[in-house]
Design a protein that fits this description.
- It is a single chain.
- The chain is mainly alpha-helical.
- It has one domain.
- The chain is 52% helix and 7% strand.
- It contains 6 helices and 4 strands.
- A two-stranded antiparallel sheet has the order 1-4. Strands 2-3 form a two-stranded antiparallel sheet.
- Helix 1 packs across helix 3 and helix 3 runs antiparallel to helix 6.
- The longest helix is centred in the first third of the chain and has 16 residues.
């Protein structure tokens, strides 16, 4: 069970983090299982705080070295080299927590199409 939760977090965090980088970003939907995990209060929508919390935990799970730097090796199962390069804004060969969180929170705002501060499955 723990492995499947970690895998879902890995896939969700990094696939969602690159949504804004993809031409398909506007048409890709949330996996309902991932969405349910993000919606921690069960109200049927994901707030910015829930999204941030989920993504911070996902980064921590991926960053197995615990040094705050996500390497290509740590993300190889969920990111292509190109996607990793797009996240690596400063081109140092790793993605910092700040780079990651900046991207995923920008993605949140882009996915919040009606601007209400929440994401929904619809």
């Amino acid at each position: 069970m723990k492995k499947s939760v970690i895998r879902i977090a890995q896939v969700a965090a990094l696939s969602l983090s690159v949504l804004a980088l993809s031409a398909q970003a506007q048409t890709r939907a949330f996996d309902p299982k991932v969405y349910q995990q993000m919606d921690t209060n069960g109200d049927g929508k994901v707030s910015e705080a829930e999204y941030r919390n989920f993504m911070e935990k996902a980064f921590d799970k991926l960053n197995t070295s615990g040094d705050g730097k996500l390497t290509p090796a740590q993300s190889a199962n969920v990111l292509t080299e190109r996607e990793f390069a797009l996240l690596d804004k400063n081109k140092k060969g790793y993605v910092t927590r700040e780079e990651f969180m900046t991207q995923v929170m920008n993605d949140f705002r882009k996915q919040d199409r009606n601007g209400d501060g929440f994401l929904s499955l619809n």
